Amino acid sequence: MPPTPSPITEFYTYIHGYPIAGNSFIIVLQYLLTEGYTYAISPRLPVVSAGTPTNLPDFAVNVCRSSAMELKIPLFLALVAVFGPFLLEAALDQAEENKAKEFLAKYNKITPQEDYKSTVASWNYATNLTNYNKAIKTNASLTFTAFYKQMRSNASVFDTSKLSYDSARQIKKITASATPKDKGTLRKLTVLESEMEEIYSTGKVDDSAHGKQLELDPDLYEILSKSRDYDRLLFAWKGWREAVGPKLRHRYTEFVELMNIGARDNGWKDIGEYWRSWYEVDDLEGMVEGFWNELKPLYQELHAYVRYKLSQKYEEMSPEGPIPAHLLGNMWAQSWVNIYDLVEPYKNQSSLDVTASMVKKGYNATMMFELADSFFQSIGLEALPASFYEKSMITKPKDRNVICHASAWDFAINRDVR
After folding, report:
1. What is the domain extent for residue 72?
2. What is the total count of domains within the chain?
3. Within a domain: residue 319?
4. Predicted TM-score of the model (pTM)
5. Could you read off the pLDDT of 101-110 as tens digits, one per residue?
């Protein structure tokens, strides 16, 4: 007999594996709670009876009228969190579940193989920006999209209300899509993405004063990270945007329009709603706003401090208001580490920057990867495969145009990571 939370017991209920929807019980219990009831719950031994499943535990729920109203909410939440999955599993259709698991096993076996072909084509284009590689990448992407469309169609036949939580979640992940249904729209979207990648990665700034064409990496990166000349920094920051922005503007506008068409084709309000669905939370915006409000006081103090220190260095800027983005040591102002020497709070202290020590020891890019790999191995992670060093593009080649932004690629099979 479960514990009694009040002297007066109104009624006593058992739940033990009958194929009832868990929500029905929860709705009844919610009503009772609003009427002033509390409850206690205790597990019992599984009940074996004809025509009922035996793999679910039996629970006794003691629902009582009580003046101890302060207990009802935490107890209700505990019931839902601990026993809700058992109640929901009661509606499981084992035949449908077995078919879904068979499909998922097949999906997880063949999809990485198909994705590998598309990913290799994307890698080849990213590491050698040619029209030939762009065409191969486009066709490989469209081929994989057609394959995945069939997978989504196969997955959509399952009634997720009859599946276990885990199987239903996987099926829903597969069927969710924002791919345009029109083939012409899909091809245009794929081509636009490749064109924008190329423009972004190959844009150059005409530095006539020095007789050079400056690339984003390493030329403009170096200016923004090392120069302390206000006008030179502004030239690099503004010059790159003027070199690539006008070429990207109309393409990006069309790209967003086509992405939203694909999202609406699949029942989403826009592509943003589809992306936010990946997080599987009801109020992502509210969560982010909450995190920002917690961080905001610290950020405002940090911002004010950096603004004050920079205003001491650059007479062109004000000690109040926004900080000019080109003064923060990074093309996108997303990292401020390159201006640490200007904002260092405590002089003549040991530096956190180990660059000088690494240069003195003759470190190159490959050695830095090896050092990082050794650290991760020291905390129990696997060593990088030999193919990582054979296939990765660790430094920027000089004989071709490439997308030279740091990125990690997982090819899903063959332990191929780059």
Report:
1. 9-91
2. 1
3. no
4. 0.73
5. 999 999 999 9
333-361 residue pLDDT tens: 999 999 999 999 988 888 778 888 999 99
Classify residue 176: in a domain, yes or no: no
Tell me the three-class secondary structure of the chain, residue by residue.
Answer: CCCCCCCCEEEEEEECCCCCCHHHHHHHHHHHHHCCEEEEEEEECCCCCCCCCCCCCEEEEEEEECCCHHHHHHHHHHHHHHHHHHHHHCCCCHHHHHHHHHHHHHHHHHHHHHHHHHHHHHHHHHCCCCHHHHHHHHHHHHHHHHHHHHHHHHHCCCCHHHCCHHHHHHHHHHHCCCCCCCHHHHHHHHHHHHHHHHHHHHCEEEECCCCEEEEHHHHHHHHHHHCCCHHHHHHHHHHHHHHHHHHHHHHHHHHHHHHHHHHHHCCCCCHHHHHHHCCCCCCHHHHHHHHHHHHHHHHHHHHHHHHHHHHHHCCCCCCCCCCCHHHCCCCCCCCCHHHHHHHCCCCCCCCCCCHHHHHHCCCCHHHHHHHHHHHHHHCCCCCCCHHHHHHCCCCCCCCCCCCCCCCCCECCCCCCEC
Give a yes or no: residue 75 inside a domain.
Answer: yes
Q: Does some domain include residue 303?
A: no
